[in-house]
Write a structure and sequence with these properties.
Layout: E1 6-10, E2 13-18, H1 21-33, E3 42-46, E4 51-55, E5 62-69, E6 72-73, H2 77-84, H3 90-95, E7 99-103, E8 112-113, E9 125-127, H4 149-158, E10 177-181, E11 189-190, H5 192-196, E12 206-212, E13 224-227, H6 228-232, E14 238-247, E15 258-259, E16 289-290, E17 295-297, E18 299-301, H7 306-309, E19 320-321, E20 324-325, E21 332-341, E22 347-357, E23 364-367, E24 372-379, E25 386-387, E26 395-397, H8 401-405, H9 408-423, E27 427-428, H10 436-449, E28 457-458, E29 460-461, E30 473-482, H11 520-529, H12 532-541, E31 545-551, E32 557-561, E33 566-568, E34 577-583, H13 584-595
Parallel strand pairs: 1-4, 8-9, 11-27, 12-26, 13-24
Antiparallel strand pairs: 1-2, 3-4, 5-6, 5-7, 5-9, 10-14, 12-30, 13-26, 14-22, 15-18, 16-21, 17-20, 18-19, 21-22, 23-24, 23-30, 25-29, 28-30, 31-32, 31-34, 32-33
Helix pairs in contact: 9-10
Length: 607
């Protein structure tokens, strides 16, 4: 029986075959480690399909690993000492076959140990540091190895939405949107990665005093209760910046836009009051308070059609208003205005609006352990629970949110943060640096030394009644991020307004003053409550109610002939029709069925 060939692929193209694949792969790897083959090359033998894949193309994610041979790491204590003394560098390790980069395919052939303790006779590689199993983002959170992996994914997206000092030159930037936290703090419990990246210079959160407790059911599920006095003292306060941009465009025929206060004869003139805050150059003045509907950049444009520009019987050319107006639901103060030139030799105007964002009900917060929540209630300080020492928490977190989501790291951070606050030092929560028991015991010693209970519980009193709670409450210090999902940017109100041409239903989206979609599940809620009239109001009267004529003879949709003042059926010619109320979307369905050569017939019952 002939031995099956093992084909060799280079960057996905077959270049030949070998008889002994494992021996061939081993030879190539040895040549790479000795510097005879480029370190950029990766090779993998896939026994299931009996193929060898060699990759040397661009764009492969690769990770460094320490090479393990005969059950021993090639990174010896002597080499580590030389690295510390700066006698050698990382490139020396790469050139001398101590460290190598593997891509996703070659990792299939590797058995990687986390550290030297876990090396076996089959181990091929070892992690440079156990921390590297997490990405850069997750490594900025303390004790990530104590959390459910799904929470890491959530935290990684939340940290990108956190408000903070996003740029030190924020006052010179004209980003379309910017969020600036007033008093960003560095976390009390940080990690080595956080420190190495110097993220404390661009902090994006604050240290909150948190108690794990319910509050009359207000912090149900993910919601949180916040202390009103903390907010008034500036906790989580931020500024929201938004930039409006416009340009004096040029058009064929030598016409162009002009920044100026539009004259009263302008087409689409908004009224004198709308332009009252503009300067002589047509731009709004800095530090002006603006509300929705106020013009920020006054601009006139030539007419759309050439015929319109020939003003019959008038000397001045007709122009139309194309000013930039502050959007619906927005307000603030004009922070800065600039006038600049573009590459096309036209003028560009930018207006930056700032508005204060004080935490309110509906604003979103999240810890570094994926524990997110919106403010459900802001409680006066005197009504909040308080400890014997008079410590009042900034935030109350529902205890049900911890076991269900398995974020033990959150509890560890609370404990370590509390101990570190008392000791007046920063704590290190780098992944895999200490086990959970060590962390708890170290913090317990500090808490005991300062007269607190070992494991962070405190005797608390009800702020409303003054009674002592029967249970002790777990309190600590946690680093919270204020996320940019703020209720002030999402408020949407509509009574009556524009509708879509096709379905006659309200338009979609906040920008178009659209309605909120009332879906299948919302319908079920009203059905369950037996609120049939409210259901009819939402899904018909306030949506796409339409009156149509239905033929009593053949069930077709008819029309009303206004010349003869009678309804007519276009199919059978009958005048015996009834007027019915239906949803316009249903009428659309009937029309679409007719377009597919299906004739729907509607049978009418007695009223």
């Amino acid at each position: 029986m002939q031995e099956e060939k093992c084909y060799v692929y280079l960057n996905g193209i077959v270049i030949g075959s070998v008889k002994e694949p494992e021996k061939f792969v081993k030879e190539v790897r040895n040549a790479r480690r000795q510097g005879m083959v480029s370190g950029e090359v990766n090779i993998a033998y896939l026994p299931d399909i009996n193929e060898i894949h060699i990759n040397a193309d661009k764009g492969r994610p690769r990770r460094p690993y320490i090479i393990v041979e005969d059950g021993k790491s090639k990174l010896t204590p002597e080499l580590i000492q030389k690295l510390k003394n700066k006698e050698i560098d990382f490139n020396y390790l790469l050139r001398n076959g101590v460290v190598e980069y593997l891509d996703a395919e070659e990792e299939e052939n590797a058995l990687v140990a986390m550290d030297e303790e876990h090396i076996t006779k089959d181990t091929t590689h070892m992690e440079l540091t156990p921390v590297s199993v997490f990405g850069l983002t997750v490594n900025t959170a303390p004790y990530p190895e104590h959390n459910n992996v799904a929470r890491h994914v959530m935290f990684a997206s939340y940290i990108k939405q956190a408000q903070g000092l996003y740029a030190s030159n924020f006052n010179l930037r004209y980003d379309s949107r910017g969020y600036l936290l007033f008093y960003p703090q560095r976390p009390i419990v940080s990690t080595r990665v956080y420190d190495d990246l110097h993220l404390e210079k661009r902090a994006s959160g604050q240290n909150f005093v948190v108690a794990v407790a319910t509050y009359y059911g207000y912090n149900i599920a993910d919601a949180v209760v916040m202390n009103k006095a903390s907010i008034e003292r500036g906790l989580a306060r931020s500024m929201f910046y938004k930039t409006y941009v416009d340009e004096e465009r040029r058009y064929p025929g030598g016409q162009h836009d002009v920044f100026k206060i539009p004259p009263a004869t302008t087409e689409n003139y908004l009224g004198e009051h709308a332009y009252s805050k503009l300067g002589e150059d047509g731009l709004i003045e800095p530090e002006m308070h603006v509300e929705e509907g106020d013009v920020l950049i006054g601009k006139v444009s030539p007419p759309r059609f050439i015929e319109e520009s020939i003003g019959v019987g008038s000397l001045e050319e007709k122009v139309r208003d194309s000013s930039i107006v502050l959007k619906k639901g927005e307000s603030g103060v004009v922070d800065s205005v600039i006038l600049a030139g573009t590459l096309g030799a036209t003028r560009l105007a930018k207006v930056r609006i700032r508005s204060l964002r004080i935490p309110e009900i509906g604003d979103k917060f999240g810890s570094r352990h994926g524990q997110k929540g919106v403010i459900a209630m802001i409680v006066p300080q005197e009504d909040m629970p308080f400890s014997e020492n008079g410590i009042i928490p900034d935030l109350l977190l529902n205890p049900n949110g911890i076991p269900q989501r398995m974020t033990f790291g959150h509890l560890l951070e609370m404990l370590t943060g509390k101990a570190s606050s008392l000791a007046g030092r920063l704590a290190d929560g780098t992944a895999f640096s200490k086990n959970g028991k060590q962390v708890i015991e170290e913090s317990a010693k500090i808490l005991e030394a300062y007269g607190f209970q070992r494991y962070g519980e405190e005797v608390m009193y009800n702020g409303i009644t003054g009674e002592r709670f029967k249970a002790t409450l777990f309190t600590g210090v946690v680093y919270y991020n204020r996320l940019y999902h703020m209720v002030a940017n999402k408020l949407q109100v509509r009574s009556r307004g524009t509708v879509q041409i096709l379905t006659h239903q309200p338009t979609e989206g906040k920008a178009r003053q659209g309605g909120l979609r009332f879906g299948e599940m919302e319908k079920d809620v009203l059905v369950g409550h037996g609120a049939s009239l409210l259901l009819k109001d939402r899904l018909l009267d306030q949506s796409d109610k339409a009156e149509i004529w239905i033929c009593n003879e053949c069930g077709s949709v008819g029309y009303y002939d206004y010349t003869k003042h009678v309804p007519v059926c276009p199919l059978c010619g009958s005048n015996n029709l009834s007027k019915v109320e239906i949803s316009y979307a249903f009428k659309l369905l009937l029309d679409e069925l007719k377009a597919m050569h299906i004739n729907p017939s509607i049978k009418l019952g007695e009223e």
